Amino acid sequence: MVPFNLYGNLIVVPVFVNRAKDTLNFAVDTGVNGILVLTPSLDTLFSPHGNSTRIPVRGLGSPEVFWAHVSSLNHLRVGSKLINEAANVMVMDDSVFNLSSYAGKPIHGLLGSALFEHLVVKIDYQRQRLTFYNRQYRRWRRQLKGYHVDTLFLHGEKPYMPLWIQQAGERKLQPLRVLLDSGAGHTLLLEIAADSSLRLPPQYIEGRIGATLSGDWYGAVGRLPRVQIARWQMENVLAGFPDTTHYVYRKPKGIEVQGAIGFGMMSRFHWVFDYRNRRVWLYPNKNAKKPFEYSFTGIDWVVLPPDFRTFMVSEVHPLSEAWKAGLRPGDILLGVNEFSASELTLNHLYKITEEEGKEIVLLVRRNNNLMLICFTAKRLI
Known about the structure:
Layout: E1 2-3, E2 5-7, E3 10-17, E4 24-28, E5 35-37, E6 54-58, E7 65-78, E8 81-92, H1 99-103, E9 109-111, E10 120-124, E11 129-133, E12 148-151, E13 153-155, E14 158-166, E15 174-180, E16 188-190, E17 204-212, E18 215-229, E19 232-242, E20 259-261, H2 263-266, E21 269-274, E22 279-284, E23 299-304, E24 310-316, H3 321-324, E25 332-336, E26 339-340, H4 346-353, E27 359-366, E28 369-376
Parallel strand pairs: 4-9, 5-8, 15-20
Antiparallel strand pairs: 1-11, 2-3, 3-4, 3-7, 5-9, 6-7, 7-8, 10-11, 10-21, 12-22, 13-14, 14-15, 14-18, 16-20, 17-18, 18-19, 21-22, 23-24, 25-26, 25-27, 27-28
């Protein structure tokens, strides 16, 4: 069992490479092939790559291509658990996306399919821990009483499973296949470009719906009357729809996929992945019945390196009360209500501000000028 931390909706675990004593922070990301190191300066920790292969890396929905080189035969440990004695690792040639700023902590890489290849892995969002099982011993299955088991479709080392949605004005549930993406912060992402029967809800707002290697990407956010995963149904579910004018849809070869689920939905269940036998088990946790909520403040924050103590506004939704009160991207937070910014973590900042009806007072700095921003957090969608 390995404890993990949730930073900015990311599952972050301690990783040790090639018996080095330095602890690296990696995000567990089922939407990534293999292992991707985001910090080029860490190259020396990995096995010499000599004339190793350089490979292209693309961010979701981006036409841009970035490059990484492959380092082979790396000894990889997550916490105290040996995951692989000869792991291939992709090391980015350049720093292209500062995931650390969105997490509020240094994030050195993404741990994808390599984590799940040799072991059965349980993700417990409620207790914040990973549990590893040896698939040769069946005793772990006794712990899965009441769990739903489903077929796990693996394509390009990424996991997919069935999902059913009800669109506005429809009675029947529509079957889809979606990517299970533990590295994404959204609840449900639907690709209108992948299926002509998908359409925007009658009411939606436009804004930032995620981030990729190449930066932020935008689209519409609305609600679906019902969504069913396995045998459990949820109502009034948030769904994002990428803006195809700024988003390049690349259809996966050999598989029909209409979308992806991320932290907003995955965190409501216990998950057990058995990649080798193409099985996934899931069971609702205590968060399953909570309503799906969009940001009440409309503010996205980042934390600036290298000390990760300075909070900066990265986005303010133009329909939000914060925007109307004068808050703008680039503003530096000095205090919120009774808290000094120096007392806060990113998780704490969101926790004390994202509450409908709460009166918010922000002290910010803009171009060496101090400003008080006062507003009431209200529902946007």
